[in-house]
Amino acid sequence: MKASLLPGEASLGVMGGGQLGRMFVHAAQSLGFRTVVLDPDADSPAGLVAHQHIRSDYLDVAGLTLLAQQCAAITTEFENVPAQALERLAQTRFVAPAGAAVAICQDRVAEKAHFAASAVACAPYAVIVSEADLLAVGDDLLPGILKTATLGYDGKGQVRVRSRAELAAAWSELKQVRCVLEQMLPLALEISVISARNAQGEIVQFPVQQNLHIDGILAVTQVPAPGVSAALQEQALASAARIAASMNYVGVLCVEFFILQDGRLIVNEMAPRPHNSGHYTMNACDLSQFDLQVRAMTGLPLVQPRLHSPTLMLNLLGDLWFSPAEPGVERTPAWDQVLALPGTHLHLYGKTSARPGRKMGHLNITAASAEQAESVARQAAALLGLAMDW
Ligand code: ATP
Ligand code: MG
């Protein structure tokens, strides 16, 4: 793409209609861009708010052709968008991120090879495609976590194993698909870094986020990261920048890291799009991750975002819509009471029904100090009946 697409003129497309697409659409619309979502679901959160919703399969030629006709640039909001679909769109339109980069992120084997090529350490691992691979696994990888190479999310598609017998059983449980076995690492905490990079190779980054997962799903993100030294934060930012640059990435990229109990930084995985752990940017920074997604794909200037408030994000899962006393009956959480607390910003994704574990929204809390943000978050969590083991 030579010149940038100007606000108020162009149409922007997004593959996928989930909540990340919805927040992308909101950011694009606030700059006056027309927006088009491609998603098969009639009630998709992004489809409901876009100017146009193309209801088709991700590989449907007619749907892709229409999207390309309608839009000057196209992005994706989910990791498992078929890379061929992006490559097809790229024949006639600017697509960011590119299919080749998304393909790396979709496959844990390719992803780990890319981390090695970027000189960033990941967990010791073995690729499992056959019984022979299973037998050849070194003792150092047990206990470990067996993860499917593709299609895993929110802790799905992975099994923790302590012994060779458990490993064999787990691989059967995962239908003997291609997997990686990772050594179980002694984690001190988890962090992530969100970068935005443009076609000229310019990169800007948000500060390091500290993340807490409960039952394999992100529960809490805190920024500034309370448990991470300045040196480790520098190292994480530099590692994420190398990972993006070495695949010539254009768009928003999230890289997840572990910090081990001995203080080492280890990369876990990456996502070729804005990320749940970056939702706090909507209220705590002067530019959000979605603003930067729009800027990166349109060639508009990438300026360094600034965190203006200490912040804490609570994920709102469908569980909150049900009380333990009446498990089958859907209720509305006490939003009015939560919004009475200072510095609370509620984001609901417009999903038509709540289910336990389903991401329904998030609550950003901004405050003058990290202590205050945490204190308000604990009050909000108590009002909502959210788990407080953080
Ligand atoms: P996401 O929802 O981020 O897509 P996912 O299903 O792709 O998650 P991972 O990020 O690979 O899965 O793992 C989920 C969680 O499991 C991690 O956040 C971490 O808490 C734990 N975990 C994963 N790999 C390891 C490891 N090698 N050692 C220790 N804990 C791990
Ligand atoms: Mg993860």
From TrEMBL:
Pathway: Purine metabolism; IMP biosynthesis via de novo pathway; 5-amino-1-(5-phospho-D-ribosyl)imidazole-4-carboxylate from 5-amino-1-(5-phospho-D-ribosyl)imidazole (N5-CAIR route): step 1/2
GO-annotated molecular function: 5-(carboxyamino)imidazole ribonucleotide synthase activity
First-level EC class: ligase
InterPro entries hit by this protein: ATP-grasp, ATP-grasp_carboxylate-amine, ATP_grasp_subdomain_1, PreATP-grasp_dom_sf, PurK, PurK_C, PurT/PurK_preATP-grasp, Rudment_hybrid_motif
Leader sequence segment: none
Source organism superkingdom: Bacteria
TM segment ranges: none
Keywords: ATP-binding, Ligase, Nucleotide-binding, Purine biosynthesis
Ranges of residues in domain ATP-grasp: 112-298
Catalyses which reaction(s): 5-amino-1-(5-phospho-beta-D-ribosyl)imidazole + hydrogencarbonate + ATP = 5-carboxyamino-1-(5-phospho-D-ribosyl)imidazole + ADP + phosphate + 2 H(+)
Binding of ATP, residues: 108, 147, 152-158, 182-185, 190, 213, 268-269
EC code: 6.3.4.18
NCBIfam families: PRK06019.1-1 (NF004675), PRK06019.1-2 (NF004676), PRK06019.1-3 (NF004677), PRK06019.1-5 (NF004679), purK (TIGR01161)
Function description: Catalyzes the ATP-dependent conversion of 5-aminoimidazole ribonucleotide (AIR) and HCO(3)- to N5-carboxyaminoimidazole ribonucleotide (N5-CAIR).
Subunit structure: Homodimer.
The family this protein is said to belong to: Belongs to the PurK/PurT family.
PANTHER family in alphabetical order: PHOSPHORIBOSYLAMINOIMIDAZOLE CARBOXYLASE (PTHR11609:SF5), PURINE BIOSYNTHESIS PROTEIN 6/7, PUR6/7 (PTHR11609)
UniProt protein name: N5-carboxyaminoimidazole ribonucleotide synthase
